[in-house]
Amino acid sequence: MTISVLVVCLGNICRSPMGEAVLRNEALKRGITNIHVDSAGTAAAHIGEDPDERTIEVCGTKSVPISHSARQVRASDFTSFDYILAADGSNLRALERHVGRREGSKAVVRLWGSYLPDNKPIQDPYYGGLDGFTEVYEQCVKLSNAFLDEVVGKKSQGDNSMDGTG
Fold first, then answer.
1. pTM (predicted TM-score)
2. What's the CA gap between 19 and 52, in Å, rounded?
3. Distance between CA 24 and CA 28 in Å, rounded?
4. Active-site residue among 9, 14, 59, 140?
């Protein structure tokens, strides 16, 4: 069974495309291939745009492939994805109010930070410098692993199984 995950921020050019790329990369590093990851924004301001150049730069320096065209969250996302992970509380509230949420949603909608004990949102780095994007990257790595631990199971050293019992 394939796990499907949608990572969501405001404009879908900074945090969520980075989160998409990092989650996919961390899953592949664990040998998890039955995962579909996408990202979207709650706002429509950047539809069709590539990720912010700083997002691309940070992913590039970490050898994390990234390729995405910004899009807005659709009602169908709530029925086609298993998990919808919000970058922060504002986007979580927007997702909870979304019409798709009321139309037979199957998706678990959560703050991505809730997979770690500190429950921290991912701060928007857009108006800052490259350091903010590096911090977002590091947070996405931690959150990706915490998410995969909870949803797929903890991975032992050298264990590439899906069930985490190896």
1. 0.92
2. 13
3. 6
4. 9
